[in-house]
Amino acid sequence: MNEKSIRGIMVGRFQPFHKGHLSLVKQILEDCDEVIIAIGSAQYNYIFQDPFTAGERMLMIHKALSEAQIDLTKCYIVPIINDENNARWLAHLRSMVPPFDILFSGNEFVGTLVGEHVKIKKPEFVSKKYYNGTYIRKTISKKDNWKKLVPNGVAEIIEEIGGVARIKMLLHSYSYPQRW
Amino acid sequence: MNEKSIRGIMVGRFQPFHKGHLSLVKQILEDCDEVIIAIGSAQYNYIFQDPFTAGERMLMIHKALSEAQIDLTKCYIVPIINDENNARWLAHLRSMVPPFDILFSGNEFVGTLVGEHVKIKKPEFVSKKYYNGTYIRKTISKKDNWKKLVPNGVAEIIEEIGGVARIKMLLHSYSYPQRW
Amino acid sequence: MNEKSIRGIMVGRFQPFHKGHLSLVKQILEDCDEVIIAIGSAQYNYIFQDPFTAGERMLMIHKALSEAQIDLTKCYIVPIINDENNARWLAHLRSMVPPFDILFSGNEFVGTLVGEHVKIKKPEFVSKKYYNGTYIRKTISKKDNWKKLVPNGVAEIIEEIGGVARIKMLLHSYSYPQRW
Amino acid sequence: MNEKSIRGIMVGRFQPFHKGHLSLVKQILEDCDEVIIAIGSAQYNYIFQDPFTAGERMLMIHKALSEAQIDLTKCYIVPIINDENNARWLAHLRSMVPPFDILFSGNEFVGTLVGEHVKIKKPEFVSKKYYNGTYIRKTISKKDNWKKLVPNGVAEIIEEIGGVARIKMLLHSYSYPQRW
Amino acid sequence: MNEKSIRGIMVGRFQPFHKGHLSLVKQILEDCDEVIIAIGSAQYNYIFQDPFTAGERMLMIHKALSEAQIDLTKCYIVPIINDENNARWLAHLRSMVPPFDILFSGNEFVGTLVGEHVKIKKPEFVSKKYYNGTYIRKTISKKDNWKKLVPNGVAEIIEEIGGVARIKMLLHSYSYPQRW
Amino acid sequence: MNEKSIRGIMVGRFQPFHKGHLSLVKQILEDCDEVIIAIGSAQYNYIFQDPFTAGERMLMIHKALSEAQIDLTKCYIVPIINDENNARWLAHLRSMVPPFDILFSGNEFVGTLVGEHVKIKKPEFVSKKYYNGTYIRKTISKKDNWKKLVPNGVAEIIEEIGGVARIKMLLHSYSYPQRW
After folding, report:
1. Could you tell me the pLDDT band of residue C174, with boundaries at 50, 70 and 90?
2. How far apart are CA D103 and CA D126, in angstroms?
3. pTM beyond cutoff 0.90
4. Distance CA F55, CA A97 (A)
5. CB F86 to CB D172 under 8 A?
6. Looking at the complex, does the CB of residue D116 fall below 8 Å from at least one CB of chain C?
7. How far is CA E76 from the centre of its chain?
8. Contact, C79 vs C53, CB < 8 A?
9. Residue-wise pLDDT tens digits, F126-136
10. Which residues of D touch E176 (CB under 8 A)?
11. What is the C-alpha separation between C170 and D13, in angstroms, rounded?
12. What is residue B176's predicted lDDT score, i.e. its pLDDT?
C-alpha cells in the first residue's frame, strides 16, 4: 500500500456474501491496488430480506477473503447505515470509507446517484440467476443445496450461528417490532 | 410488591387491546407477581394498521385492567418506540421497562431475538382467529359487531374518541404524509 | 403584505408540480392574501414515487408561479421533512411555515389530523384523473405526452435536469440503498 | 375512573424521583381525578445528569406511589423520548399520554411552550433547595445522607441496582460513547 | 429568471435576520441573478440561542426582502434541518435547495466543508460587531435599543409574536425538555 | 483464523490513532487470536474534537497496522455510529462487529455498561499523558512536534489529507451548522 493506491469500491447488502461477490472482489483487485467492500443496510438484521447482522456479514466476508488467499492488507470491509436521502448517498458513503477511485456496479441507479463524480465500472457477474442474495435466502429456507453458492467460510459461519434456522424462522414468523 | 417480585412481560401494539390480551394479563398474574405491558410501535398512530396513539392505547389498557379488577399496583404499562435494529431490540426494551424474568410470547421471532437471555413462556390464547388486532380493525371498519371482542372499557374509549370513524376514514383515505 | 394577512396553505409532494396544483394556488390567492406551498417528503428523492429532490421541486414551483405571473411576494414555498408520528403532524408543520388560517385539502385524512385547530377548505380540482402525480410519472416513464399536464416552466426544468431519463431509470432499476 | 375524569400532568426527568415530586403527585390528586407522570429524557441513562434508565425510574415511581398508598388506578406513569423541536413538544407529549386538562409546572418555559392550549397550574414545592435532582445526585455522589430526600422505596431501588456506585462512577469516568 | 441563471447562496440561522444579512442579500443580487437564503438549524426553536421557529424566520426574511423592494422572483428562502455528519453537509444542502454557483461565506469552516466543489466568495459585512445574532439576542433580552439592528419588518414580527418576552424568558428559564 | 478464535475488542474514537492505540492492538494480539478495533462516533467529523471522518480513521488504522507488520487477517476495523441510549450500547456494538470474548478497556464507565456480559481486561497504556487524542490534537494545532506520537503511516495520511490545516481551522472557526 502506498499513498497513490487506486481503490475500487463495491457496495452490497451481502445477505449473504456469495461466490458472485467473491468473484467481483478478485476482478477489482486485478484493476485496482485496493478494494473497499461496503456493507449496506448495516442496521438491519433478523428480517427475511436481511437476516444477518453487520458484524456477522463482516465476519463472513473476512473469512471468505482469507480462505481465498486474498491479501487482506488490500481490503477494507465497512458497514454502512442507510441514508434515506438518496441525493446525499455518495457523500454519506464517502464519509464512511477510505477515498476511492472507481465504483464497481452494474446498477443503473447507482450510476445515476454518483453521476460524474466517480468513475463507474460494470462488473462481469457470472450466473447472476443463482448468485444473488434473494435466490440464496430462498434456497436456504428450503434446505436445498445452497452451500455451493457461497464460499466455504461463509457456509461454515452460517451454520455456526444457526443461520439456516434463522432464515426459516424469519420466513414463517411475523416480523415482530413491525407488526406484532 | 417487594424486591424479589417476579415480573412477566407481554409486548404488543394493542391496536386495540382486546379480550385475548386481557386474558394474557390474567395468565401472567397467575404465574408472576407483576406484569409489564409494553406498547410497541408507540410512535405510530392515525394509520390503518395503527389507528390509536400510544396515549390512547395506554388509556384503554388502564381502563380495561381497572374494570377487570386487576390490581394496578402489579401492572406497568409502557409505550415503546420501535428500534429498527432487531439485534438490539431486547436491550432497547430492557432500557425502557422495569426488570423482568419471563417474556410471554408464542412468536418464534421474539424467541429468537431474546435468545437465551430471557425465559420465554408461550401464552394460551383463546380464539386467536377473532381476538387479533387485524380482524378487529377490519370488523370495526365494517361496523360489524366488534364490541364483544374488546373489554367494555376499551369499547367505550374507542367510541368517545371517535375511533370508529377514524378507522373507517383511515381505510378509505390516503395516508397523507406518506403519499399525498 | 401586512400583519393581518390571511394565509392559506396547501401541502403536497409535488412530484412533479402540475397544472392542478397551479390552479389550486390561484384559488387560494382568490380567498387569501398569501399562500404557503408546503413540499412534503422533502427528504426523499431518486425513488420512482419521489423522483425529484426538494430543491428541484422548489425550483419547479418557483418557476411555474413566476411564469403564471403570480405575485411571489404573496407566496411561501417550504420543504417539509416527514414526521412519522401523525398525531404530531400539525405541530410539526406549524413549526416550519409562517402562521396560516386555512388549510386547503380535500383529503379526509388531513382533515382528521388537523381536527378543529385549523379551518379546512376543499379545493376544486379539475380533471384529477390526469392532474395527479402518479399518472404524470407513469406518463413520463412511457414518453407519452406529459408536457401538457404541467406548467411550461416545470416541463423545462424536468428536461434540463434529465428528469425523463431519471424516472425511466427509477422504474426499471433496483432502488439501491434499500435493496441492492 | 369515568370518562369525565379530570387529569393533571407533571413532567420531569425524575433522576431520581424525590419527596418533592411525591408531594406534587398528592397535590395533583387533590385537584384532579387522575395524574399522569411523564418521565422526560427517557432515552438517556448512565450519564451523570441522567443516571437511571426509564425503566428504573418507572419502577421507583411505581414503588413510591404504592408505598404512599396512592391509588394506582388513578396514576399513569409514561416514559417520553425527547423531541428536539420545542415548538412541537406539546403535540409530542399529547401523542404519548392520555388526554389531560391541567399541566402542573412552575417553569415559565413550559408555560410558554403550551401557550393557551393547556391550563397551567403552579405547584407548591417545599424546600426546592434540597428536593431537586441535581442536589440529590451530588449528595449521593458524596455518600452524604441522601436517603431522607427520597421516598423509602426509591432509596431501596437505588441501593438494589447499585445506583450509588453508578452515580459515583459517572461523576469520575469519561462518558464513553461521547468522548472516549 | 431563465435556465442560465447564476445563483448565489447564503446560509445562516437568522436568529434573527438582521441588517447585515439584508446587506448580504443585496451584495449577492449584484453578483448573481438569484439568491438562495438557507435557514440552518431549522428544527431548533424556543432555545436562547435559537428563539424563533423556522416558519417565523422565513416570515421575517420574506417581509424584510419585500420591504426593501427586492424582487422576490429572484429569491429562494429555504429551511434546512441540521446534519450531524459534516462531511455530508454540502450534499445535504444541495438536496434541499435549487442548484447554486457561488456560496457567500467568510467562514473558513464552510470553505473547508465545500472544498473545491463550489466557488466561495467572501461577503463584505459591515459592523459585524453589532450585526450579529448573539449580540442582537443579548440586546433584546436587555430591552436595549435593538430595533435599529434589524429591518423594520423583522422588528414588527418580533413584536407581534411576543419575541422580546420569549427571549427574556429563555434567558432565565430552564430549557425544559433537556434539563427539567 | 478458525471458528474457535478468541477475539478481543478495543473501542475508541481514534482522533487520531496513536502509538498508545497501536501498543494496545499488540497487547490484544498477545492474548487473543483476533482483534476488533471499533471506531466510535463514526458519524462525526470536521469538529475540533472529531476532525477526521470514519473513512479517514479507518485508513490511518489500516496503514498503521500494515506498517507494524501486524497480520491483517487477524484484524477487524469497524466504524460505529453512536447510540444515545447507553443502556443499549453493548447490544448496539455487538450488532455491528464480529462476536468477541474480551473487551479491553480501563474505563470504569465501559466496565459498567457491559456489566457481567463481557469479560473486561484493563490495558497497560504507556504514557497516557502524551498518548491521548486531546493532547495530540492540541499539539497538532500548535504545530509542535506531534509526529512522534503517532505511527508513521498515520502522520503521512494526516499530511496528505491536509489534517494539520484542518485541525487549526477547526480550532479557530465557528462550527458552522451548529452555530453560524
Report:
1. low
2. 18
3. yes
4. 4
5. no
6. no
7. 12
8. no
9. 678 889 999 99
10. 11, 40, 86, 89, 107, 109-110, 113
11. 47
12. 43
